[in-house]
Amino acid sequence: MASHFRSYIWDPVLIVCQIVLMQCIYYSFLGLWLAGVDSLVQSSRSLDQIFSYEALGFATMQGRLSMMAFILNSLTCALGLWFFIRRGKQCLDFTVTVHFFHMIGCWIYNAHLPAALSWWLVNIACMALMAVIGEYLCMRTELRAIPVNSGPKSNL
């Protein structure tokens, strides 16, 4: 008899729903982090902060604060992986998927692939943070001790 511990059936509807959920978490919390950063420096909000690769840069204070918002967002998304994906070995897959769709969105918004080195560095760092922290949190949960009922024992 085969073991059914941690056996999963491939469910494409669940996977698509999880991808959509992670994209919603990514953009919702990125918007909140950017709004918080904008309120600190009294800057106007725009979609350029999310999709324009020129908004991320080391030269200006606004660019550095936007990079900070992206990094804080990767930590928030790692919590999303922990709460909704719950599998350590799937964290990298969902992280790359979220950032791939973000790159496609930036490509469409700018009409060409992002060319700034700072955009690539920030997104690779965010991908690494999100995947590693998400995997750590999920693995901690997966490796938690399974309680064994220590009820009355019978002598057989």
UniProtKB/TrEMBL annotation:
The chain crosses the membrane at residues 12-35, 65-85, 92-111, 117-138. The keyword Transmembrane applies. It is a multi-pass membrane protein. InterPro entries: Integral_membrane_SYS1, Integral_membrane_SYS1-rel. One of its GO terms (cellular component) is cytosol. It is found in: Golgi apparatus membrane. GO terms for biological process: Golgi to endosome transport; Golgi to plasma membrane protein transport; protein localization to Golgi apparatus. Belongs to the SYS1 family. Involved in protein trafficking. May serve as a receptor for ARFRP1. Interacts with ARFRP1. PANTHER family: PROTEIN SYS1 HOMOLOG (PTHR12952:SF0), SYS1 (PTHR12952). This is Protein SYS1 homolog.
